[in-house]
Amino acid sequence: MGTKQATAPRERIPEPLTEQTGPSGGTLAALGCAVVVLAGTGLFGWSDAEVVHAWRTLLVSIVVQGVPFLVLGTVVSAAIGAFVPPGLFARVLPKNPALAVPVAGVAGVVLPGCECASVPVAGSLMRRGVTPAAALAFLLSAPAVNPVVLVSTAIAFPGQPGMVAARLAASLITAITMGWLWVRFGKEEWLRLPKRPDAHDTGGSRWAEFRRGMQHDFLHAGGFLVVGAMAAATFNVLVPPGLLALFTDSPWLSVPLLALLAVLLSVCSEADAFVAASLTGFSPTARLAFMVVGPMVDLKLIALQSGAFGRAFTVRFAGTTFVVAVLVSVLIGAVLL
């Protein structure tokens, strides 16, 4: 009778870091909601000042404008986490990340929401096995090429189908280019993606997981939405309109100026075409840059991305996206406008 050979215990492989440091989304959500409620009801003792009234109005309008689409995004994200089998999206998309990127970019057409909705959905796609490059291409394209945005652009620029085509082309090219850049240069360690246990992993009720996932994502993203809205409202009330007029006569300055303005104003993608149409002193290419950059890089989106994926990712990704979006807008504007 042989002796039982002792086996060494298996080495436990540490899980990748998935939680980011800094204030939690729930904490920011609670503080942000308090600010919005106090601002909306005018309970600040100094709220009679005209500048504070304007700031309060802008803050509440940005948050109210973004929350419905944030809810849409969290519903989709929670549904993906609770009901979609693990690996489904990875099996549907091409195995080659370079091919998966344009497919995911074109798939952005199906989500009629703004940038607030795309961040939690992109995070959920990554958790379900989708390559980050494809998920990021979807994140950038969904707010810019969906039917609601294209129809609003056509209404804002009547009789100018070239502007609609230019926005569609420039937004898709930017999203796909950023996905390909991530394939070539991106590093997984830059992403700090919060991991949620889901019903597939724990064996729990999928509806219970759906509720937990929606609560988690909404609280996590909602606080950062408020932070971004506060920054955008502050810019709106502090920068005098006359300062912008100094740049309208220079084609070299007007494009980057309106691109930067899109970042700071943080207008929802469903409404930004009407703002762009009102900027009649600027060239068509500059207004195109405003509509291409805004849904991909604005203050509330930067805050949402920072909360969802980490600051290290957001600094690199948002900065590169801004540059690519401006360059592509100039090229497409020269061809189509």
TrEMBL record:
Record flagged with keyword Glycosyltransferase: no
InterPro entries, sorted: DUF318, UPF0718
Protein localization: Cell membrane
Keyword DNA damage in annotation: no
Annotated spans, Disordered: 1-24
Cellular component aspect of the GO annotation: plasma membrane
Membrane topology: Multi-pass membrane protein
Transmembrane parts of this sequence: 26-46, 58-84, 99-122, 134-157, 163-183, 218-239, 251-268, 275-297, 317-336
Pfam families: ArsP_1
UniProtKB keywords: Cell membrane, Membrane, Transmembrane, Transmembrane helix
Family listed: Belongs to the UPF0718 family.
Protein's name in the database: Permease
Organism whose genome encodes this protein: Kitasatospora gansuensis
Organism placement in taxonomy: Bacteria, Bacillati, Actinomycetota, Actinomycetes, Kitasatosporales
